[in-house]
Amino acid sequence: MPPKTQKRKKKINKNFRKRTKRVFVRNLIREVAGFSPYEKRAIEMLKLGYEKRALRFCKRRLGTQKRARKKRDELAKIVQQMKTQSLEK
């Protein structure tokens, strides 16, 4: 009995291309426009060590806990990158 052939094409490559384009555009927009005022405030909270307070603040602005956690993690990464860049100089 011959091995089964795949009936449909894999969509991994197509989705990967879309994702990389999306990430590129978001990074470009972030570079040009910067942070929104609520993001700046949340970054300050994270710098001071108020992670839970920053989460509550983001939740208020974004509406759901899941979105707030994602945003806080994203901003925490940015704060960490800023710290490492300042240490390198």
Describe the secondary structure blueprint for this structure.
Layout lengths: L11 H22 L3 H12 L2 H12 L2 H24 L1
Helix pairs in contact: 2-3, 2-4, 3-4
Organism: Anaeramoeba flamelloides
Keywords: Ribonucleoprotein, Ribosomal protein
Family: Belongs to the eukaryotic ribosomal protein eL36 family.
Characteristics:
89 residues; 4 helices; mainly alpha; Ribosomal_eL36; elongated
Helical coverage, percent range: over 70%
DSSP helix count? 4
Please give the number of β-strands. Answer: 0
Question: What is the N-to-C order of secondary-structure elements (H for helix, E for strand)?
Answer: HHHH
Q: What is the general shape?
A: elongated
- Average residue-wise pLDDT: 89
Biggest beta-sheet profile: none
Which consecutive residue ranges, at least 5 long each, have pLDDT under 50? none
Q: What proportion of the residues form beta strands (DSSP E)? A: under 5%
Report the span from N to C terminus: 65 Å
Oligomeric description of these chains? single chain
Report the radius of gyration as a whole number of Å: 19 Å
Q: Given the helix and strand composition, which structural class is it?
A: mainly alpha
Protein name: 60S ribosomal protein L36
Family: Belongs to the eukaryotic ribosomal protein eL36 family.
InterPro entries: Ribosomal_eL36 (IPR000509), Ribosomal_eL36_sf (IPR038097)
Keywords: Ribonucleoprotein, Ribosomal protein
